[in-house]
Amino acid sequence: MVRNPDKDKDIIISRLKQQGCRITKQRLMLLDVILEEDCSSCKEIYYKAVKKDPKIGAATVYRMVNTLEEIGAINRKNMYRITCDENDNGGYTVRLNDDSSINLSESKWSKIIESGLEACGYIKNQKITSVVDRKKAVSVNK
């Protein structure tokens, strides 16, 4: 598939905004660095970024890379290549104890949560406006 860096950038910016991230000059510059070339490590991204902005810190680069990974825009296993798709709005993967998994879009995830909350008596004729994940990874141990 041929990537369109401008379209990818717009999709990523939209996802960052959905996560409540401010779109700063440094974040935009880091996106440009990642979109311009495939990078094999955070360190490589940092070295390229320092050439464009000597004031940028390594911690800023690492935080941005982590944020991009969390929103599904990049994949460390894929050498920091952009992996977003306009038809993939993030969504959720539910892993099951038999090593299978279920991929759910945001809208399906919301419907499942609403159905579950309604079935348990927590809500009646209400719609979810947001879900706040207070931990990065949720584990259910039974």
UniProtKB/TrEMBL annotation:
Fetch the SUPFAM superfamilies from UniProt: Winged helix' DNA-binding domain (SSF46785)
A Pfam family that the UniProt record links to this protein: FUR
Molecular function GO terms recorded: DNA-binding transcription factor activity
Please state what the protein is called: Fur family transcriptional regulator
